[in-house]
């Protein structure tokens, strides 16, 4: 038996157990600390039911870092969530591909801002329409506007542009030109809006027709906003929804883990901006 074990490169005890047919199954892999980690995981899952295990792991490790504890391995969080039935269902839908070679991501903040609009319905049938401006580097929602019972107007877009410049620079004109990418909606393409953008030192850029991927960063935020906020909150009417949007935006900027930012939140990258580009 010893020579056979040496030839196969296995232990003699393993061969003995196999020969006797008594090799027990070790069962599911577990660690003693898993039970202590489960309440923290379950708390985040209950609070944010649309998050997958990667974002849950990011929130768990932020909390453990605040407590002076070592980070939990992401695969360990996946294993615990799988055992407890807390994983999201696998996405199985297929989509038709469309070639796009445009570049949206930039290497630092305040080089390109992206803007788009969205709408959602409340339980009583009210429709809320919203527009926003997102930075193409740090993914922060810099400014937004929302209305009910009407569409987003050119005046709304211009007010939002001014708000974004004031929040980022504390002045009414950006110190360096910034590309402002949007679709071809009339509030963006109107002459008044283009002239106003130029006065703010913004360079209007427009996507090709029928090419949402050309503004993919905005499209991604729309998906995140509807999935992680609109879908899971109480929306009896438009007034209730409008009161909640500011909190949702703050939560996205301050807490939401972003895969492209190494699971950091958009606001956490603010320290990467030069001091000349920060307000306060």
TrEMBL record:
GO terms for molecular function: nucleic acid binding. GO terms for biological process: DNA integration. InterPro entries: HTH-like_dom, Integrase_cat-core, RNaseH-like_sf, RNaseH_sf, Transpos_IS3, Transposase_IS3/IS150/IS904. Residues 105-274 form the Integrase catalytic domain. It holds the Pfam family rve. Gene3D superfamilies: Ribonuclease H-like superfamily/Ribonuclease H. Signal peptide: none annotated. This is Transposase InsO and inactivated derivatives. It comes from Methylocapsa palsarum.
């Amino acid at each position: 038996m010893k020579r056979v074990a040496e030839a196969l490169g296995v232990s003699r005890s393993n061969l003995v157990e196999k020969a006797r047919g008594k090799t027990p199954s070790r069962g599911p892999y577990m660690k003693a600390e898993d039970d202590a980690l489960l309440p923290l995981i379950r708390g985040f899952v209950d609070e944010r039911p649309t998050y997958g295990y990667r974002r849950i792991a990011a929130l768990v490790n932020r909390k453990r870092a605040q407590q002076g504890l070592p980070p939990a391995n992401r695969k360990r969080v996946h294993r615990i969530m799988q055992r407890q039935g807390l994983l999201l269902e696998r996405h199985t839908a297929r989509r038709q591909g469309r070639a796009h070679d445009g570049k949206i991501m930039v290497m630092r903040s305040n080089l390109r801002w992206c803007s788009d609009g969205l709408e959602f319905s409340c339980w009583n049938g009210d429709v809320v329409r919203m527009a926003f401006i997102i930075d193409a580097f740090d993914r922060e929602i810099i400014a937004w506007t929302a209305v009910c019972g009407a569409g987003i107007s050119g005046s709304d877009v211009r007010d939002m542009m001014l708000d974004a410049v004031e929040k980022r620079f504390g002045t009414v004109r950006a110190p360096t030109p910034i590309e402002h990418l949007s679709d071809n909606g009339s509030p963006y393409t109107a002459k008044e809006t283009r002239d106003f953008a130029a006065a703010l030192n913004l360079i209007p850029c427009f996507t090709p027709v029928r090419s949402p991927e050309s503004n993919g960063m905005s499209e991604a935020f729309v998906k995140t906003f509807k999935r992680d906020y609109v879908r899971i909150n109480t929306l009896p009417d438009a007034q209730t929804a409008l009161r909640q949007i500011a909190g949702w935006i703050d939560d996205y900027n301050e807490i939401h883990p972003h895969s492209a930012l190494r699971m950091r939140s958009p606001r956490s990258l603010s320290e990467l901006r030069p001091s000349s580009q920060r307000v306060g």
